[in-house]
Specification:
Length: about 600
């Protein structure tokens, strides 16, 4: 899976890859040839006192060394660029894939894990790719070439390799084999610590308000301690590798000098040949060490590749059908027919048997207790989730029969959790309509009752907005999100409890200002307050995912006990609304 992932992203770069292979090959051949020249200098020049041989061969060594350095630099430069390109391509593919996910897939994998996979996991694969480019050509050529050239210097002395190499490979292989489960645990614990940290940063105000700093610090310490323990275990295993390699290298050097000295003393070997043989032994062992170093990185990169491929292989549950129509703009006719939604593996559906129709120019409200399925119903319309039963049609087209871009381009959604992106007021409003002029942006802000506080900002439309809108209040954040939807001028407006942070006066002004703007569009409002929705043309009452009532405020007061309970729980005994409700309720 690891090499499949790397190969897939290397396929478009065959030219640079071929250049790297050639440069590494030339660099390695030059490295192997230098000890032979050095042996010739010693045997033919130094021992015999021939200065011209020393100068000529020395000049050749300098030229070959310069060429070897240039090839190595060029190969490393190309390798780094190509490895970074592989990392960039994988991150791009991951981002594009996650962008297609519905809330269901994001919830299954988890946002912290997706962040870790897009950053740390990609970095592990990227580093292995870089090391592979550097070592995949050099190590095998240097090992094989070193063995051949060492045997050319002295065959009997080469017998040491029959003992040394298997011993080294077995020792390092056992260490690498133990590292695989450890690295898998490390990556999982990185997910855990990212999840805890992300949760604590997001909920810092709640933690402080309830005095839970010590408890949260302990949670983080537990996750941090588990990660530290796993990394220490991996570090201990890695720390065995280099001492093992250097021990074998040093023992080998002693053995070569011991037996080589005896062969020189007997006249069976020359001094230069022993020097070259020792260099080749070092090169062979270094090539094995380089290969083992790469193999050391493979376990962690393999775990990361598995996690990356898990995301890339996850099929999004909400996608365009093959024959989906691309419609420039859908009108505001919304028809929901017996819609239901169940999460995979859930015993009971979140939503079931919901049917209603919303025409352009009308307002449909949804009310119900917490967990009754109101937000789920809203999410089904733009296909943030797909209905598991029934159908939903927009503009006379089933939502599955048109492209997601066509569908969502005709819908203006204000989510339950008002979210703003880092940038400016103008950039956030123009997210709904990138071509909106400043005048249109101000019109949207006026309608959303946000113009006054934006004018009070020194920079006006260019006032900075921090990530999530953390530098504005909850009510200001909601009004900016409403302005964003208004600027898009959609055919259907979806307000998912988007007025909860507004006071009654602002709520009333906003609803009054929305009427002329939404004259030709269908409006669906999810609300907790009866006062927000009592003037709606049609009110849907949900209870435990079922539609238990539908009609106007007055009709529901007469024949829907669930709606009556909601009204009674919200209106105080001395409020005018309660008196009205009581009068209408008494007429039953």
């Amino acid at each position: 899976m690891l090499f499949k992932l790397i190969a897939r992203n290397l396929a478009p770069h065959k030219g640079p890859l071929a250049a790297i292979v050639v440069l590494q090959f030339l660099s390695t051949i030059a490295t192997l040839y230098l000890p032979t020249l050095n042996a010739d200098i010693i045997d033919d020049g130094v021992v015999q006192g021939k200065i011209d041989v020393i100068m000529n061969l020395g000049l050749w060594m300098l030229l070959i060394t310069a060429g070897q350095v240039l090839c190595a630099i060029a190969a490393t430069f190309l390798s780094a660029r190509l490895a970074m390109g592989v990392g960039r391509a994988i991150r791009r593919d991951l981002f594009d894939k996650v962008e297609t996910f519905s809330a269901q897939e994001v919830g299954t994998i988890g946002a912290p894990s997706l962040i870790t996979r897009t950053t740390n996991d990609v970095q592990q694969v990227q580093m292995l790719t870089l090391m592979s480019f550097t070592l995949m050509v050099m190590a095998p050529i240097m090992c094989v070439g070193g063995i051949v050239l060492a045997m050319a210097q002295d065959v009997p002395l080469s017998g040491l390799l029959l003992v040394i190499l298997p011993l080294l490979v077995v020792a390092i292989g056992l260490i690498v084999r133990t590292l695989v489960p450890t690295f898998r645990k490390v990556q999982k614990q990185l997910d855990d610590i990212n999840g805890v940290l992300r949760e604590q940063i997001t909920g810092i105000s709640v933690i402080r308000a309830f005095g839970r700093r010590d408890y949260e610090a302990e949670r983080f310490a537990t996750a941090n301690g588990a990660l530290t323990a796993s990394q220490l275990r991996a570090g201990r295993l890695l720390s065995l590798m280099f001492p093992t390699i250097f021990f074998v290298v040093n023992v080998t050097s002693v053995g070569v000098l011991w037996f080589g000295g005896q062969r020189i003393d007997s006249g069976a070997m020359q001094i230069g040949a022993l020097t070259a043989f020792l260099s080749y032994i070092m090169q062979i062992l270094m090539s094995v060490m380089m290969a083992m170093f790469m193999f050391m990185m493979i376990p962690r990169a393999a775990v990361s590749a598995e996690r990356i491929m898990e995301v890339l292989d996850t099929e999004a549950s909400v996608v365009d059908s093959p024959d989906a129509l691309a419609v420039a703009r859908l009108d505001g006719r919304l028809t929901v027919d017996n819609a239901a939604f169940s999460y995979p593996g859930a015993q009971d559906p979140v939503l079931s048997g919901v049917s209603f129709t919303a025409a352009p120019g009308t307002t449909t409200a949804v009310i119900g207790s917490t967990g009754s399925g109101k937000s789920t119903l809203v999410n089904l319309i733009p296909r943030l989730l797909d209905a598991t039963e029934g159908s939903i049609a927009v503009g006379g087209h089933d939502t599955r029969a048109v492209t997601l871009q066509s569908l969502r381009g005709s819908i203006g959604l204000v989510p339950q959790k008002a979210y703003l992106f880092s940038g400016t007021v103008a950039s956030n409003i123009r997210m709904g309509n990138p071509d909106a002029s400043d005048e249109q942006v101000w019109e949207a802000l006026e309608t959303a009752q946000a113009a006054d506080f934006v004018r009070d900002m020194p920079e006006g439309l260019q006032a900075p907005i921090e990530q999530g809108g953390s530098n504005v209040s909850g009510g200001q954040r909601q009004r900016l999100c409403i302005a964003r939807a208004i600027a898009a001028k959609p055919s259907i407006y979806l307000f998912d409890d988007s007025f909860s942070a507004l006071d009654y006066a602002t709520d009333a002004r906003l609803r009054a200002a929305l009427k002329p703007v939404t004259r030709d569009a269908a409006v669906l409002v999810v609300a907790q307050r009866v006062g927000t929705i009592r003037d709606a043309d049609n009110i849907l009452v949900l209870d435990e995912g079922r539609l238990v009532g539908q009609g106007t405020h007055e009709q529901l007061l007469l024949d829907c006990p669930t709606y009556q309970e909601i009204v009674t729980s919200q209106l105080s005994a001395d409020s005018p609304e309660h008196e009205t409700a009581g009068t209408e309720g008494g007429a039953q």
